[in-house]
Amino acid sequence: MSVSEEPSPSHRKSSEQGERSLAGCVTTDIADLLAKPLTAGLYLVATPIGNLADMTLRALSVLSRADVIYCEDTRHSAKLLQHYAIAAKTRPFHEHNEEREIERAISDLESGKRIAMISDAGTPLLSDPGFKLVRAAAAAGVPVISIPGPSAALAALTSSGLPTDSFFFAGFLPPKQAARRARLVELSQIPGSLVIFEAPHRVAEALADMADVLGERAAVIARELTKLHEDIVRGSLRTLAEATFGETLKGEIVLVVGPGRAEPVSDETINARLAEALEGMSLKDAAKALADELGVPKARIYGLGIKAKGRSP
Ligand code: SAM
User: Measured at the alpha carbon of residue 206, what is the angle toward residues 171 and 259, in degrees to the nearest 5?
Assistant: First the structure.
């Protein structure tokens, strides 16, 4: 219930009777939700990213009455559904069966069914299947209803301490280094924080590439959010890359990277600083040191150094 809404009749009744309890309010709110009919449509339902208690009342009221719940992995979702005694029929939905299931789902929706879609964790469609189903439902003129809730991307961003006014959700980076670095070059142009999902065994190598390509930026490793071993480590891309070097982190991880400098550093500034630095160190070391100092990608400094060498007699 939003604060601007009138209290429901059941709330009024309980407050008239005296002290209201949290448990009482939750009970009456869910009862009110369940008393209203669930209309036909495609419901996109966010589910917990680790902590089963992060279910909204709307999510429970929709899932408990859906004609079918599409899950990425029905066995995985069974734990959550059993926890809340939800007995609705489940059906798998993943990239290997989505064409067939979309056809079936649209026909079900057109005949007035209530279909819920959940993923293994968090908000469906965010690095999870479902986009093509939503597109098809919208094209068929079927209602698409969002039941918002947990999202690892937003939980990581908001607890990172990095700017939230403008951010870019990049999903997973390519696993192979050349493609990952090429993607990071594209991402380096985004004027805002970056939110990136990464597999634990690739975090160290991804951070090393980020430090090289994105330069010296503030960053955060957000691990196991909402779970027992929740851990948020803040630093610079370089310090985080060094701290994780050779390590395989455990658990689920989101990386958040702060924005680059607002003022771009010119080639002239880099060339001037490079000329000084090269008096005392190799181009490789100078590129690394200046990347940290100027907050520009090491590869750019190295490239300018090679160009300058080509020009010198
Ligand atoms: N749709 C989901 C969402 O909205 O959060 C994300 C699904 S995506 C396939 C799974 C990735 O989300 C993981 O590899 C990890 O990067 C991130 N993730 C999921 N749960 C997390 C958690 N509890 N803590 C940190 N990252 C998590």
Answer: 65
C-alpha span between 194 and 258 (Å, rounded)? 7
SS3 assignment, position 90: strand
Instruction: Tell me the best of 197, 203, 231, 233 to mutate to test the pocket of ligand 1, counting ligand atoms within 8 Å of each CB and taking the most.
Output: 197
Is any atom of ligand 1 closer than 6 Å to the C-beta of 123? yes
| Calpha distance 163→38 (Å, rounded) | 39
Question: Is 22 exposed, middle or buried (CB count within 10 Å of its CB: 0-12, 13-18, 19+)?
Answer: exposed
DSSP 234-277: EEEHHHHHHHHTT----S-EEEEE----SSPPPHHHHHHHHHHH
Pocket test for ligand 1, best of 127, 202, 227, 230 (most atoms within 8 A of CB): 127
CA dist., res. 1 & res. 16, Å (int): 19
Distance CA 154, CA 54 (A): 14
Q: Write out pLDDT tens, residues 51-104.
A: 999 999 999 999 999 999 999 999 999 999 999 999 999 999 999 999 999 999
Q: Say whether pLDDT at 292 is over 90.
A: no
Taking a C-beta distance cutoff of 8 angstroms, is the pair 88, 133 a contact? no
